[in-house]
Design brief:
By secondary structure, the chain is an alpha+beta fold. 35% of the residues lie in helices and 24% in strands. It has 8 helices and 14 strands. A 7-stranded mixed sheet has the order 3-4-5-6-7-8-9, sandwiched between helices. A 5-stranded mixed sheet has the order 11-10-12-14-13, with helices on both faces. α1 runs antiparallel to α2 and α6 runs parallel beside α7. The structure holds D-MYO-inositol-1-phosphate (IPD). The site of D-MYO-inositol-1-phosphate has 15 residues, from β4.
Length: 280
């Protein structure tokens, strides 16, 4: 049977590679840093330039498709996921890494139809790793099939998480309370790549058993959520049940029992949803 989104996925891979060239080139220049919601929520002209490049290029080929892009939403556009074909874009996932030259920076492009992810492309530009997944057809890195870890014992696992961009004492306490409980299970280690998309691809690749975070956005994890599930992993909400990509909470794991063990240790809270319109 023919795959109707085959051309769109090929285009996503090509444009992610092109975006990666722009990101690598920009690393050689001075990076002008601006801030968004707080002094540690960073953005650069390269984030904005790459997002424009991707959206313009997709619009030329697929003029009826819709977009959710990190920088477009920051500029005031709606973050609505409808049934229409929608490209969900994070031009640079790992902006803080990009600013500092810390080598985990990804271009993330997810594609959803009827609110279901059809394909996901995450290009880790500095590692030159192209992660891809097509619904029902597996996940790959540079063409090699990905499979999550077979580890069943959380005490022999590595868990990835992040510290987010809120320095509100209560939010920081929640993060450290969860981290302490998970570390003391005990697990082999806890890691942070500085990019939600790359953390998720590490789960899909089998070198990290699970990743969790509260505070991510739909553009950080849309593409990589399909990469994890197509590699055999599971996605859950931090309180259990199905993940809701607009809820800004996620647990991605190699297996359900490990996800559930993490959920037991997390101090959960609910940040404002991505699809809640800003208050006037
Ligand atoms: C951020 C990164 C970071 C995660 C944040 C994200 P950005 O995305 O993925 O690892 O902790 O929650 O917002 O701002 O670099 O695109």
């Amino acid at each position: 049977m023919s795959d109707i989104w085959h051309n769109a996925m090929d285009h996503a891979v090509a444009i992610a590679r092109q975006a990666g060239d722009v990101v690598r080139e920009a690393l050689r220049d001075d990076r002008m840093v601006m801030t968004k919601t707080s002094s540690v929520d960073l953005v650069t002209q390269t984030d904005q330039k790459v997002e424009k490049l991707i959206i313009q290029s997709v619009k030329e080929k697929f003029p009826t498709h819709r977009f959710i892009g990190e920088e477009s939403v920051a500029a005031g556009e709606a973050c609505d996921l409808t049934d229409s074909p929608t490209w969900i874009i994070d031009p640079i996932d790992g902006t803080t890494n990009f600013v500092h030259g810390f080598p985990f920076v990804a271009v993330s492009i997810g594609f959803s139809v009827n609110k279901q992810m059809e394909f996901g492309v995450v290009y880790s530009c500095l590692e030159d790793k192209m992660f891809t997944a097509r619904r029902g057809k597996g996940a790959f890195c540079n063409g090699n099939l990905l499979q999550v870890s077979e580890q069943e014992d959380i005490r022999q696992s590595i868990i990835a998480t992040e510290f987010g961009s809120s320095r509100d004492p209560e939010a920081v306490n929640n993060i450290f309370s969860s981290l302490r409980s998970i570390l003391c299970i005990p697990v082999h280690g806890v890691r942070s790549a500085g990019s939600a998309a790359i953390n998720m691809c590490l789960v899909a690749s089998g070198c990290v058993e699970a990743y969790y975070e509260i505070g991510i956005h739909v553009w950080d994890v849309a593409a990589s959520s399909l990469i994890v599930s197509e590699a055999g992993g599971v996605l859950m909400d931090v309180e259990g049940g199905a993940v809701d990509l607009m809820s800004r909470r996620i647990v991605a794991a190699n297996r359900r029992t490990i996800a559930e063990r993490i959920i037991k240790e997390i101090s959960s809270f609910s940040p404002p949803r991505d699809d809640t319109p800003p208050q006037q």
